[in-house]
Amino acid sequence: MAEMTLHQIRKTYGALEVLHGINLEIGKGELMVFVGPSGCGKSTLLRCIAGLEDISAGELRIEGSLMNDVPPSRRGISMVFQSYALYPHMTLFDNMAFGLKIAGMKKDEIRTRVNRAADILQLTPLLGRYPKALSGGQRQRVAIGRAIVRDPRVFLFDEPLSNLDAALRVATRIEIAKLKQSMPDTTMIYVTHDQVEAMTLADRIVVLRDGKIEQVGTPQELYRTPRNVFVAQFIGSPAMNVLHAEMQHGDAGVTIAHAAGGESLLGRAGPLNAGPVQLGVRPEDLTLARDAAPLFHGRIDHVEHLGELQLVHTDVGLSNQPIIAKLPGELDLQRGADIALAARPSSLHVFDAEGHRLNGAA
Ligand SMILES: Nc1ncnc2c1ncn2[C@@H]1O[C@H](COP(=O)(O)OP(=O)(O)OP(=O)(O)O)[C@@H](O)[C@H]1O
Ligand SMILES: [Mg+2]
After folding, report:
1. What is the model's pLDDT at position 47?
2. Domain CATH number, residue 225
3. Start-to-end CA span in the chain (Å)
4. Does 357 reside within a domain?
5. Average pLDDT taken over every residue of the chain
6. Phi and psi dihedrals of 154, rounded to 5?
7. Residue of 138, 111, 144 lying closest to 125 (CA atoms)
8. Of 111, 140, 191, 282, which sits with the fewest C-beta atoms within 10 Å of its C-beta?
9. For residues 153 and 269, which has the higher predicted lDDT (pLDDT)?
10. Which of the listed residues 40, 159, 162, 207 should we mutate to test ligand 1's pocket, taking the one with most ligand atoms within 8 A of CB?
11. How remote is the CA of residue 256 from the centroid of ligand 2, in Å?
12. Measured from the CB, is residue 13 less than 6 Å from ligand 1?
């Protein structure tokens, strides 16, 4: 049985509907990541699950039981927010123990739980310290510890790392991955803006847009077979290049010819209908066309060096739409030079004029 089932969940504020009927099943012990543009409803959905917002319509079930009218404290859920407040006048131990004391738990049990959480989060040597004597990452771990001691069935994280600097984010992300491994039966839902966090932490990712689910799948499924242009351009960085193209059927099979002039033979197994489509190719799937027939021909407009690789923006003659290629850093590529780029036909993504995927599964 699914640990959590969302059936046609809607949320309205007055006349404004911000969640438009969300259907989702989350398995026990699964780490589900919600991503989507700002304002798409990620936090609202999380708060509906936690019980911090009323659900306007639909059903939320945890282990089969209807939760819509169950108060937050009785849902077996702990939530960690982006901005968390620790009590400055309390030690770490007391910060983590506070909620349990309020709930009237016995001292021995509190000690056991706080020590276990501190152990998982590597905070044991710091338990006697006050928050002001901690780094940002350590404070965030205390906030997570406060959630762990409640021994929740389900953990909700709303952008817990977004206040941390880049290095701390990486370190804390690894902590969270380890935390998940040490609590294999605890279901987690994690909201983030960060691609890398989503790809590395998730068992499955939910892509939301304007209060609707666009796609649910493993990170690899979303990356390899995005079901529409929106997901294709949301997952992956830099975003997939997408341009207008035309499918043609010839003796050799199906070819795709795009607006900037290049074409590629997709082979016999291509999508069926000839006509206007959208062609997608990821920056990392483009290579310099040495012998291969180029898919794109153009002039280098801008180069961003990232060390081991470089992002090469190429003007292929489409107004305001450079083609971006992620190429090895050691290649000597200068602004203004001509460049020819190729891609394996199997790496191409084909969408219909409305943006729905045509080739491959999904
Ligand atoms: N209390 C409220 N009253 C009215 N509208 C609200 C309320 N809370 C949220 N909204 C609206 O609901 C939509 C979804 O907001 P939400 O905070 O869930 O977005 P989000 O995906 O978490 O965005 P972000 O990535 O910026 O955190 C937004 O359009 C927001 O303005
Ligand atoms: Mg939010």
Report:
1. 95
2. 3.40.50.300
3. 24
4. no
5. 91
6. -135, 135
7. 138
8. 111
9. 153
10. 40
11. 40
12. yes
pTM score: 0.90
Contact 30, 194 (CB under 8 A): no
C-alpha to C-alpha distance for 80 and 156, rounded to whole angstroms: 6
pLDDT in tens, 264-315: 888 765 556 778 999 999 999 999 998 778 999 999 999 999 999 999 999 9
**Whether 204 and 259 share a structural domain:** no
Pairing of strands 31-35, 187-191: parallel
Indicate which residue's Cα is closest to atom 17 of ligand 1: 43
> Residue for token digits 């509906």?
48
How high is the pLDDT of residue 362? 45
pLDDT at res. 323: 97
Do the domain assignments include residue 360? no
The C-alpha torsion from 338 through 343 and 349 to 350, rounded to 10°, is: 70
Q: Does residue 43's CB lie within 6 angstroms of at least one atom of ligand 1?
A: yes
Show the domain range for 284.
239-352
Between residues 165 and 101, the one the model is more confident about: 101
CATH number, domain of 293, equals: 2.40.50.140
| Contact status, residue 81 vs residue 163, Cβ threshold 8 Å | no
